[in-house]
Amino acid sequence: MYNLWEIRKRKGMSLKELSARTGIPQERLYAYEQGKEPIPYSDLPRLAKALYVEEWEIKTLSDPPPQRKPPSGGRPRGQGKRSKGPRRKGQRSRPRRMPPPPSPARETQLAHLRQLAPAVGKTVEELEQMVGKPLSELTRREASRLLFQLQEILRERKQQAKEEGAHNRKRAYLPEGVDRFELEYLTQLQESGELVHFHLFDGSEVVGTIVGFGPYAITVQTEDGETTLNKLAIAWYTRAGGNS
């Protein structure tokens, strides 16, 4: 897996060109390359297509590119500044303060990542391939970003499942469609043994109790015996009492 900026430079493409090809604003691409924001899964296909690589080759969280060295030939360091006196014998220079190392991920973060992995259809090994390192080596910030990505995927899937469930609960308009609404209604009529009044498209009527049904037909017990009605022939049907 490679950093986004590495792949872009290898392809000889400017940030402006990549933005034009993908439709992703330059500011967001810059944030991706600097490691300030993780690349969401919705942008990965566009980036991979524009850069002519596979999605898995792009690290979702890039390492910032190395900083450029100052140009040579400039003013010597310290020129124009107030010169310091000679260092006294035995005087020690102040040690430079090194920035503290990034904090490692919390155990609770790692445990949450392992729990979310199967919920989004991934294994722990696949998560480690995404970030390019074992989960145990993640920093606190990296773990937080990965958790955010997985939670976004989970939210999208739950919303999609909710929308599909709402669609399945809608009553079908075609007479041959046995959806959940019709299934429950016919089952209720069959179990109660109520008389049902069927009105057919040819103008005839059939009254009886439902003894069975399927996707395309309903079997009715009438006074003359059992008869099977094709759903395409049924205009509508109601309880014999008049309530649908």
Structure write-up:
- The protein is α+β, with helices and mostly antiparallel strands.
- The chain has three domains: 4-57, 434 Repressor (Amino-terminal Domain) (Orthogonal Bundle); 107-164, no CATH class; 180-239, SH3 type barrels.
- 39% of the residues lie in helices and 13% in strands.
- The protein contains eight helices and five strands.
- The chain has helices at residues 4-10, 15-22, 26-33, 44-51, 107-119, 124-131, 140-169, 180-192; strands at residues 196-200, 205-213, 217-222, 225-230, 234-239.
- It has a five-stranded antiparallel sheet.
- Strand 1 (196-200) and strand 2 (205-213) form a beta hairpin.
- The longest helix is centred in the middle third of the chain and has 30 residues, at 140-169.
- The protein is elongated and about 120 Å long.
- The two termini are 62 Å apart.
Give a brief outline of the structure.
The protein has 244 residues and is α+β, with helices and mostly antiparallel strands. The chain contains eight helices and five strands; from the N terminus they run H-H-H-H-H-H-H-H-E-E-E-E-E.
Layout of secondary structure:
Layout: H1 4-10, H2 15-22, H3 26-33, H4 44-51, H5 107-119, H6 124-131, H7 140-169, H8 180-192, E1 196-200, E2 205-213, E3 217-222, E4 225-230, E5 234-239
Antiparallel strand pairs: 1-2, 1-5, 2-3, 3-4
For this entry, give a set of tags.
five-stranded antiparallel β-sheet; 434 Repressor (Amino-terminal Domain); SH3 type barrels; elongated; 3 domains; 244 residues; alpha+beta
